[in-house]
Structure prediction request, 748 residues.
Amino acid sequence: MLQLTHSRRRRRSTLLLAAAGLITLFALPAPAHAADGYRLWLRYVPVRGAWLNRYRRAATELVAPRKRSPTLRAAQAELERGLTGMLGQPPAVTHSVTAAGAIVIGTPRSSALIRGLALGLRRVGSEGYVIRTLLVHGRRATVIAGNTDVGVLYGAFRFLRRIQTRRPIGKLSLAARPKIRHRVLDFWDNLDGSVERGYAGDSIWKWDELPQYLSPRYTDFARACASIGINGVVLNNVNASPYVLTPLYLAKIAALAGVLRPYGIHVYLSVPFSAPITVGRLKSADPLDPAVQAWWRRKVAEVYRYVPDFGGFLMKADSEGEPGPENYGRTQAQGANLLARALAPFHGIVMWRAFVYSTNPHSQDRVKQSYDIFKPLDGKFDRNVILQVKNGPLDFQPREPFHPLFGAMPHTNLMLELEITKEYLGQQTSLVYLGTLFQEALRADTWARGRGSTVARVIDGSLYGERQTGIAGVANIGSDRDWCGSVFNQSNWYVFGRLAWNPEASARTIAEQWVRMTFTNDPAFVRPVVRMMMASREAAVDYMDPLGLASQMAAGTHFGPGPWVHPGPHMPPDWSSTYYSHANRTGIGFNRTASGSDAIGQYAPHVAAQFASLRHCPQDLLLWFHHVPWTYRMRSGRTLWDSLVRHYARGVETVKWMRRTWLKLARYVDPYRFRMTADFLTLQVHNAEWWRDASIAYFQSISRLPLPAGVAPPPDSLKAYEAFCIPYVEGTPGAGPACPPDDAPVPR
Ligand code: BDP
Prediction:
């Protein structure tokens, strides 16, 4: 009873305090760029109420080694910045513990103090950290230590996160290490400043200003990456320009590497396979040609003169018009090993993409190609090659089954490639939290070595024991003030990093922490917003590609519906929508069973049996694997047609619910971020309705079945939806000419 009264009183005083805070807030002139998203999840807003004194007692002074590397200086600066922002006073910086509540940072090498403590650092490896509360010279202190400086930096961010998310810091015993070695952001940025599939402005790399001017944004970018453990950045588009390998650009790249280095981030480059010809003026790029091999050796040595800790190359070869070893009748392994051997003396790696397919209309089922090309090459890749495999066998669709190469190449390093930029999921304005998609991909069970052979365990090396492990995310970062085109898109950068560090972490927990750091710790805000985020990806699947459909979007822009897009002179079958839906009078879906393309045969027997059975196939992948009659009875008892229509409708309803939920939360958010999110949700409702109506109109023209009771017919004709075309979309250069200028009305 006493406790109850106490907590009630505390709540009341918190309310009063909050009210007072609001009054002061409005009384003050708004600082420039207040809460405009620039500071991401590293906002460090003042702590109020009972927590403040508790935290202050445990953060009285900051004890740093006398001699500090740039990385240790970054860790110290971050702690100073965070503690000052949150606790309202800067910690005194000292070199020895003089008061209770000190925070001691360092490594055994940099700090005699830490050397003298038994912290169990051996278990945290070269990037991990230990955070422990213990007595140092008889005084209670929090030690943040690593075997390396970057471990300390990661520990500093973890410590700050506890305060940001209102967790106790008085009695800590934490230890962590990343489960994956290469945790990489892939930028699809072109050297002209545009970004392929980038929806957040131009490239953040200002090539014209480099190397002389180093924008402070680069440092803030590096801080954000380090705060979630990202340790690699591929600077340029996989559709790579040869100029990256020229001295002009290498000098610029070296300057960027210098900014990122203190934050533990290695720089990588995408390079074109034809570079020996375009840059080296050779006649060939044949991997077996000694002149080509010698050229790459020389070029790589040159790159390392500019960037001594250069990470390596990312390669898109023999894909979508990019050159590759196939041009010379060589295998993907011969191509990859060519680069690997040039990089090996410098400990560099090759991330060789498995996204290889031919758009020949007579080629087999597109989703089978990558497996068929790479599986026979298992064991043929050098040790410093990692095969970079997209999460699904097609291309970053709203939902795909896992790529059958996971688990199928026990003698090859495999890394996972995810798309953080929402190319196929509504681009900049739609609120779609990808944590659930990433988690689904990581937790998919390949059954390669029995139950529990998850994709996470393939890529973290615990299934087959690879030492070169990796994960890559196609970045959603650009020159927009808020980095990602919207505040909620930031959560996708965030969750990628957190899952890269620990692929078994929970998307929900990460969402909750992100909301707390980005907005507020108030549960009245946190709970509904996390619920919105967790429902958001499924909503998008529902209104875009339900029940295992894929690739139903408009051609080129990949924005908005286009289920009618069919093969033609300029449209290879496997870039069209009808190829994937296979919708006809009898039914819908792609038969990938043994009686069809038998793509199912690429999975381990247990998984294949499940996918092959109409009854046991997960319903959310049904049409990916089966061609199903429109009148097929689903587990719910509804027909497939009714069920499909209901999914479209449900997707729209969920987005409307998200919008209603958000509109009730104005009082917890600053006006700028509130308004932007509210308006974007209005836009998303509109887009979701457009997807629903256009898809229903199209598929009904084929199924010729009535709509289920209670579902309103699309307000426009199929012809109107088909005629509607958006000429320009950010991130899709050259989309314009695909749309004839037309004064047809915009569908409702
Ligand atoms: C597709 C994108 C295209 C990329 C390609 C890739 O539409 O812009 O170049 O992926 O991953 O999804 O290489």
Observations:
- Residues 1-33 have pLDDT under 50 and may be disordered.
- The CA atoms of residues 318 and 327 lie 8 Å apart.
- The two ends are 58 Å apart (CA to CA).
- Residues 591-626 form one domain.
